[in-house]
Write a structure and sequence with these properties.
DNA-binding, Arc Repressor Mutant, subunit A, homodimer, 5 helices, globular
DNA sequence: ACAAAAATAGGAATAATTCCTATTTAGAAA
DNA sequence: TTTCTAAATAGGAATTATTCCTATTTTTGT
């Protein structure tokens, strides 16, 4: 039986209304600004908790801090490997075939129905 | 004109014959064991150099240190989010359609022709 | 061989995240 | 509605991962 503490709810609430994949540091700063008593340890603990529950998604970055995203609807991510900006995109994979390939070729049993692609954004390409 | 120093070559050589996506720390330990004089700074610098050149791939992890992979042939990765093990798999995406979706929906201009999927492996699923 | 550019070693510094301990809180049950 | 206890928290120390710094060395082109 989970205890949904005030702090956990504040963190989740902020993620629900966020659309820009904030880092733990940004989440910490924002909930503090809104009056939360949450410590940094609490923020990290809850982000891990919520992402293990599958309520939010932890997005690993090529460089820099991880980012977090509330799972509104299933969507994919493409990440600029220069500036670390994360973009959402929708795409219908042939999940049945993807599932088959992964099951046949790896030891992975259970997996996400979205993918991560690495790229470079327009702005960074100019420089 | 790049200078392929002895250290850079040692690091690359090790990655070429590796099939288990080692971390920077593991690469450092192994080349040292083989007699390289490379410092940790040199290992990191060269891993970044090689991955910017597209010769190797830096794989961002959900938790723990990044991993590196020599690009033998294009292949996708599926990562166990519990134990961090990385598996390769081959899969033919409809790259034309994927490209179109990403270009239409995001600011990303140029991107990899492989994807990363998150999952849980058999072993971790048992526990 | 010489100069210039690039790369290195080694360690300090920074960034990101986890861990620790004493205290507080949420929720169940009486 | 008080009490009990597992779960959660605050705050900071510790750890991990990575980058940065500077003096020295090496590589490559001429």
């Amino acid at each position: 039986m989970e205890k949904y503490s005030r702090q956990r709810q504040e963190i989740l609430d902020f993620l629900i209304e966020s659309y820009d994949h904030p880092t733990a540091e940004e989440i910490y700063a924002e909930v503090k600004k809104r009056g939360s008593t949450a410590s940094k340890g609490t923020v990290y603990r809850n982000l891990n908790f919520l992402s293990e529950k599958g309520i939010i998604e932890k997005i690993s970055m090529l460089n820099g801090a991880d980012r977090y995203d509330y799972k509104k609807t299933p969507h994919n991510h493409v990440i600029c490997s220069k500036c670390n900006k994360v973009f959402d995109f929708e795409y219908n994979f042939n999940l049945k075939r993807l599932r088959k390939s992964i099951l046949e070729q790896t030891e992975i049993e259970d997996f996400s129905d979205y993918v991560i692609v690495q790229g470079i954004c327009k702005k960074c390409l100019k420089n």
